[in-house]
Amino acid sequence: MNPVSLEKRTAELRGNEPPLSVADFEAAIRAVGPERYHDLHPFHHMLHGGKLNKGQVQAWALNRYCYQAAVPRKDAALISRVHDRELRREWLHRVHDHDGQLPDETGGIERWLVLTDGLGLDREYVISRRGALAATVFAVEAYVTFVREQPLTVAVASSLTELFAPKIHKERISGMLEGYDFIDDKVMAYFKRRLTQAPRDADFALQYVLKNAKTREEQEACVDAVRFKCNVLWVQQDALYNAYVAGNIPPGAFRPEV
């Protein structure tokens, strides 16, 4: 008799279980945030509590740019797989939100670069990602790959960390404005815009997932996708803490001026 892997056996058990009710499925998705979202990370608490120096905040902004720049690529990868015209049209505004839309909407990436400009970082250096931590680059590219390769409903589900984002944006705006004399209202424009964008996006994606994940196995895969996305965000905080708080800056990474 051939051995059966634990992973395969778990999948079989999931497939044999009845689907969760819509209410229980939504509750399972929402329960991921309080357990795994990166607002729980020590680096996050230091950032929002005014406990970092300017070089450490620069390192955070520079590395976070890699994630911001990857988001419209992730969304474009998802759109390329969609045959439903209405879904494509709905999802396209996410690309516009980050890349901007001609003639005069600059988009979230430009607003993020206003932040890095305000922190004294060279814009070309930020965009090049030359100083980013390897762990940051690996994590964001894993996210793009996940969305490109996973079943469509699971790929959509990975965006549902947006359910937890407004709280962290509010904390970031108030905490950083209060905690750092080198941060002003202008450079926080990205987060202010996301206070309205993220809830809209999260509501659409949640309704899509609740409607289209029909089996227990599909539902569990969607909950796992939210956990995966939390891991993508968490590992970036781990890398920042290890490099810029613990002092283990790897070769080639950004080094704040002393």
Q: Short summary of the structure?
A:
With 258 residues, the protein is mainly alpha-helical. The chain has twelve helices and no strands. Helix 1 crosses helix 12, helix 4 packs antiparallel against helix 5 and helix 8 packs antiparallel against helix 12.
Could you please describe the fold and organization of this structure?
There is one protein chain. This protein is mainly α. The protein has a single domain (20-244), classed as Heme oxygenase-like (Heme Oxygenase, Chain A, Up-down Bundle). The chain has 12 helices and no strands. It has helices at residues 6-16, 22-36, 42-48, 54-79, 85-99, 108-118, 123-128, 134-149, 152-157, 165-179, 189-212, 216-244. α4 (54-79) packs antiparallel against α6 (108-118). The longest helix has 29 residues, at 216-244. The chain is globular, with a radius of gyration of 19 Å. The N and C termini lie far apart (64 Å). The mean pLDDT is 89.
Topology:
Blueprint: H1 6-16, H2 22-36, H3 42-48, H4 54-79, H5 85-99, H6 108-118, H7 123-128, H8 134-149, H9 152-157, H10 165-179, H11 189-212, H12 216-244
Shape: globular
Largest sheet: none
The oligomerization state is single chain
Q: How many separate domains make up the residues? A: 1
Strand content: under 5%
Return the average pLDDT rounded to an integer.
Answer: 89
| Percent in helix | over 70%
Written as H for each helix and E for each strand, in order along the chain, the element string is HHHHHHHHHHHH
CATH superfamily: Heme oxygenase-like
**Annotated CATH architecture:** Up-down Bundle
